[in-house]
Specification:
heterodimer, A: mainly beta, B: alpha/beta, Peroxisomal Thiolase, Chain A, domain 1, five-stranded mixed sheet, about 15% strand
């Protein structure tokens, strides 16, 4: 009769179940727990639904925001939504400028399991002239020591779109573009 | 509140599943209130954050089942990181509405059932999966974005305003902000040395914190809470019956809940909802909340303070257990909760206000004892088993207000002298939901 390997360090248990699928964890009080590998994988049938024009736009090299259609509101969203957060009226699509400024930024040295292989990567919140909200994006081709709040950046698009928010990213702008004072 | 209990929080409790952990926490609470027999409990509210961690849906039913509470009424509560705080308030509502006389609030999380980086992925699925998650799916990244802007607003534009080179000024401001944030981490880890339930008690220096591994610039490993396994319960009861269970009941005198947009990018640039100690003039040039502050925390605080009749929280509260998932968010939360004005959070740390009296933190804390924040060690040092966390805060606050820290911690060091009123604060997402509850001595 076989019995899974008995280990007293949980880290070793994790490694053992990766290898063989099962292990016994023995704690300081001598209690034994059987631990097994339990895989779980799924492909969702995900619809971008009302956000679809934004993601289709990225594939055409366009950054599409949305603007409230109510004459008294006209709120401009850099991350689009089909109904206005302020007044509840429908919004309309429009093209955002392809240049903006860094509102905030970070460099991630870790991430979710799905993104660990891409580390380190920069994230930035981008502000655009005339927009009342921001857009979160990756920031590439920049050294961490170059980055600062207010830095002008411009959009780049993936020539082979994956229909993901990662189809757009930003790089430092060639020339200082902003006309208005940063927020 | 008439009793509470919890398990020790740990990186992994493979010897107990969520049902047994909740049972252990419940038995602790029962031991502390021997009259609390099962038949005197009218129903339960059960909280856990993510079905993904145990890959068991409707797990709250299994808790109800294991505790032998069927066929009493129960419902599962989930609200991201604020799950435990919401569960506490759900139990409060069950009793306050008259629906129940005695309600058990029970929460847990077993995060060790997946690898840490998969766990980060599950947590990040609580960000917008169209616009946010695919960029890296990393909450520490989101909090780093917030603190970089917080530092820009409140250090770059003040203490470092005289420096004209923008990069240099921001670099210096971030270094200063990081140094001060590290003091929060030192405080919470050091407080936890006296709390046997804490997961990561340790003595650290500011340098240790700064030199620990960089996770998402500028946040380092020691400034961030970790994954945990754990459970906590709180038993709430009508005032009329409280003395059946304890000679030292704790009264819940205020509850508040606020919300904000799921995406950080959508946060408005408007006006600050003012605390009673503030005037519009204080914030003439501040766009609020942007990504630097938590409007949900401010709203929750103001609602709870209004209900409890609190106008100056720093003076009228004796301690706060708040949701320090990050050292940065502890500082942001001081401001949201009106312990100081927006922009004063860093000075608030430097003054020593949130530190405990009688503990040597390795640097001067002149005002220590003014308003101890996270005397238990908070999430950073106690751990953050999400569905249990808000209830853990309730249990620690309950013991503080009973004056029985010594009985439960077997160490009196963390007892806030003569604690009469405290607040607990539970926080979800990038600040998309926050609860604040005010607890007072009821004896």
């Amino acid at each position: 009769m076989t019995r899974p390997k008995t280990l007293s360090k949980f880290r070793e248990v994790q490694a053992e179940i990766e290898r063989t699928g099962s292990a016994i964890y023995r704690d300081a009080e001598g209690r034994e727990s059987l631990v097994i590998r339990s895989p779980y994988q799924i492909n969702y049938i995900h619809s971008y639904a009302e956000d679809s024009p934004f993601f289709l736009g990225l594939a055409e090299g366009r950054l599409r925001g949305s603007r409230c259609t109510s004459a008294g509101c006209r709120f401009v969203f850099a991350t689009p939504r089909s109904h206005c957060m302020v007044c509840g009226e429908p919004t309309e699509w429009f093209d955002l400028p392809l240049t903006g400024r860094i509102h905030s930024w970070t460099t991630c040295h870790f991430g979710s399991e799905a993104f660990l292989k891409e580390t380190p990567y920069n994230l930035a919140m981008i502000e655009f002239d005339g927009a009342g909200s921001l857009l979160l994006a990756r920031l590439r081709d920049a050294k961490q020591s170059d980055l600062y709040v207010g830095m002008p950046v411009e959009a780049r698009f993936d020539p082979k779109p994956k229909y993901s928010i990662t189809d757009v990213w930003f790089v430092p702008a060639a020339a200082p573009a902003p006309t208005k004072k940063a927020r | 509140m008439v009793t509470g209990g919890l398990t020790k929080f740990a990186k992994a409790h493979p010897e107990a599943d969520f049902r047994l952990m909740v049972k252990q926490a419940f038995e602790y609470a029962r031991k502390d209130a021997p009259n609390l027999t099962k038949d005197r409990i009218d129903g339960t509210r059960v909280s856990y954050f993510s079905d993904h961690f145990s890959r068991q849906l409707k797990a709250a039913s299994m808790v109800q089942d294991y505790l032998g509470m069927n066929p009493k009424g129960s419902v599962r509560i989930e609200w991201g990181g604020a799950t435990g705080g919401e569960c506490f308030q759900a139990a409060y509502e069950a009793v306050a509405s008259g629906r129940m006389d005695v309600c058990l609030a029970a929460g847990y999380e077993t995060m060790s059932r997946v690898q840490t980086w998969k766990g980060n992925e599950f947590i990040a699925l609580a960000s917008d999966t169209n616009f946010d998650f695919p960029l890296g799916g990393f909450y520490t990244g989101y909090y780093a974005l917030m603190v970089v802007r917080h530092i820009y607003e409140y250090l770059r534009r003040t203490k470092f305003a005289h420096i004209t080179d923008e990069r240099e000024a921001q670099r210096l401001a971030i270094a200063e902000g990081s140094r001060i944030m590290s003091k929060v981490s030192v405080k919470n880890h050091l407080n936890a040395l006296h709390n046997p339930y804490a997961q990561y008690p340790k003595r650290l220096t500011v340098d240790d914190v700064l030199r620990s591994e960089m996770i998402s610039y500028p946040l380092t490993r020691e400034q961030i809470c970790t994954m945990s396994d754990g459970a906590a319960v709180a038993v709430l009861c009508s005032e009329e019956r409280a003395k059946e269970f304890t000679d030292r009941p704790v009264r819940i005198t205020g509850v508040g809940c606020g919300t904000d947009t799921m995406r950080l990018a959508d946060r408005p640039f408007g006006k600050v909802p003012l605390a009673p100690t503030e005037t519009a003039k204080d914030y003439e040039h501040l766009d609020y909340p942007g990504v630097h502050s938590f409007r949900a925390g401010r709203s929750a605080g103001l609602e709870a303070y209004r209900m409890a009749g609190i106008t100056d929280p720093k003076r009228e509260l004796d301690f706060i257990e708040l949701h320090d998932a990050y050292a940065s968010s502890e500082i942001q939360t001081y401001e949201d909760l009106g312990l100081c004005k927006y922009g004063e959070g860093y000075d608030f740390v430097e003054s020593g206000d949130p530190f405990l009296k009688g503990i040597d933190y390795g640097f001067p804390t002149p005002n220590a004892g003014a308003i101890p924040v996270n005397p238990s060690g908070g999430l950073i040092a106690c751990g953050h088993p999400v569905g249990a966390t808000g209830l853990m805060q309730a249990v620690f606050a309950f013991w503080q207000l009973q004056g029985r820290i010594d009985r439960h911690y077997r160490d009196p060091a963390l007892q806030v002298a003569n604690a009469r009123r405290g607040a607990i604060h539970s926080h979800a997402g990038t600040g998309s939901a926050v609860t604040v509850s005010i607890l007072e001595r009821g004896y």
